[in-house]
Amino acid sequence: MSPALMRVLRVVVLLSAVRGAPLATVTLPPVILEPVPLEPVAPVPVPSEPVRVDSGADQNISIPINTEKQQQQQQQQQVSLDVDVMLTGELNPNHYPARRAAQVVLHHLNTRYGSPYWWGALRQVHKATAEALGDSGRKYSLEVTLQDQISGTKETCTAEVVFPGGPAGGPPQVTTSYEGKSEINTQAQEEALYNQYNTSQNLLSGHNLPDSYGHVAPGMEPFWHLGGVASSFVMLKESSENTLYNMAQVVSVTQLATENNQLRFNYDVLLHEMVSQEIIHWKLLASWSPQEGVKASQMELLPKCHHCEPPQEH
Fold it and tell me: How deeply is 104 buried, as exposed, middle or buried, from its count of CB atoms within 10 A (0-12, 13-18, 19+)?
């Protein structure tokens, strides 16, 4: 053994004695990392044609953009579809199609039974159905409650309204079970009013019934009611499935000379078309007597009232 090797052995023995444990070499096995398999990823589809946004006014836009105008058009189209659905079969009594037809029933009854002391109003629509009649139009079957605006009495009746179809059109046709003012008797009041103004030397005149505060002088109330009844002749004639008329105001009323035992009056009235929110100005020649009832012999549409506004509820 060489002297150098002997010196190394002495150092090893000395270190072992100092640490109290033999010196050993530990060899760790090599760590082998296996590859982790990856899930296959589906390829992203590539459009056959590229998406374009052209800025030219006359070019087509490849990406649809809902502008406010387009949204309004879509809403109007949806409303039209909803109305078409509602106009067939059973209707919602509170919706326009049913109430428009019911308002026509009211105008029809006003022209038959109205007077200075009976002026009907639509109180409630209970039931309503619609049936398409092909080229002949559309028929509405209704159950409604009407109320006399003067006495407050109510009566329920059934009715049918046919809106003619085709280009000729025409006013709606109405049949009803209503048999007249069965619960009230206004004959004495009507005869007293007739005698008063048939023999009076001073012809009646009045304006703005009601006024801007909703007020009508007590002595003018019968002639306000008479103007409302006379207006129903116009509203019945002008009504369609797309209108809803009310009388807004008697602008003026002027008594004319009695003729053929009929009191006669010139009326200027404002009608409120609630669908379009237009105020329409009409001139009427109305006549009345207790025996013959109310008639509207002349009806003239006047120029549009540009300064008029829809009436306010009082």
Answer: buried
Name residues whose C-beta falls within 8 Å of residue 181's C-beta, 6 or more positions apart in sequence. Answer: 113, 118, 148
Q: Report residue 263 as tokens.
A: 């009191």
**First-to-final CA distance of the chain:** 132
DSSP for 100-146, please give it.
HHHHHHHHHHHHHH-BTTB-EEEEEEEEEEEEE-GGGEEEEEEEEEE
**73-129 pLDDT per residue, tens:** 554 444 444 444 446 799 999 999 999 999 999 999 999 999 999 999 999 999 999
Q: Which helix (H) or strand (E) holds 5?
A: helix 3-19
Q: pTM for the full model? A: 0.71
Virtual torsion, Cα 128, 132, 135, 140, nearest 10 deg: -10
What pairs with residue 118 in β-bridges? 115
- Per-residue CA distances from 38 to 32, 43, 128, 162 (Å): 19, 15, 68, 74
38: Cα within 13 Å, side-chain hemisphere: 3
Measured between alpha carbons, how far is 259 from 263 in angstroms, rounded to an integer?
7
Of all residues in the chain, the percent with pLDDT exceeding 90 is 61
Higher confidence at residue 42 or residue 223?
223
Rounded mean pLDDT, 27-49:
50
Give residue for tokens 């002297």: 3
Q: Cα(272)–Cα(226) distance, rounded to whole angstroms?
A: 17
Partners of 176 in beta bridges = 159
Tell me the C-alpha distance between 37 and 243, whole Å. 74
pLDDT value at residue 70: 55
Calpha distance 142→259 (Å, rounded): 39
Distance CA 314, CA 307 (A): 20
Query: Is the bond into 47 cis (omega within 30 degrees of 0)?
Result: no
C-alpha to C-alpha distance for 97 and 86, rounded to whole angstroms: 8
